[in-house]
Design goal:
The protein is α/β, with parallel strands linked by helices and about 200 residues long. It has 2 domains: about 55 residues, no CATH class; about 110 residues, Trna Endonuclease, Chain: A, domain 1 (3-Layer(aba) Sandwich), CATH 3.40.1350. It contains 4 helices and 9 strands; from the N terminus they run ββββααβββαβαβ. The protein has a 5-stranded mixed β-sheet with strand order 5-6-7-8-9, with helices on both faces. A two-stranded antiparallel sheet has the order 1-2. Strand 8, helix 4 and strand 9 form a beta-alpha-beta unit. Helix 3 runs parallel beside helix 4. The chain is elongated. The N and C termini lie far apart (about 60 Å).
Amino acid sequence: MSRHVRLRLGSNKYPYGWFPPQLLILRSAQQIAAVIPCEIEGFVIEPEQFLDAFLRREPWTIVSARRRTGGGPHKKLIEAIVADPTCLEAGLSLHAENVWVADASGEVGYIDLLLIDTRGRYVLVEVKVQGKEIDTGIGQILKQGIMFARQNFLDEARVRLALACPDIPDVRRLACAKAGIECFKLPTAAGKEAPLR
């Protein structure tokens, strides 16, 4: 008995016209989770790269997307954190910026900052300029955290979720706490004073 499977291998822009010399098809339950080699934000991930990261139990999809154009307060806040990640918490280090995440349904997102804490956990940080943006940030970081853990085959206990903002009203801080999201208070003038946690 033979079974035909219709797959569009490669990316939409560069589909394979032939099978590459090495090919991995990753399954999760009854669905295809990934086909490798694959292209993420212009970077080609080869089978060896995936296997190396997988065996070390590290994310394999850590690709920083092109920086968004423009400036403004959001960019300044991100630059202040990138310059000194310990302004959020002692021992944090920068791993990547503007990190691509996706799921099997085609949903795509970008995490502002990916940091690593002293225990080797990944800290996903969504930066917001105003406290009222935290409402949308809660759903955004929850969804991105799930996608990041699933696409990288990570235990969700290794992923911390956080919002960083200069103004975090108490009711929004409580909403974050209920959702399991940490809050980092940033200075209004980025980088001019030590933020409070």
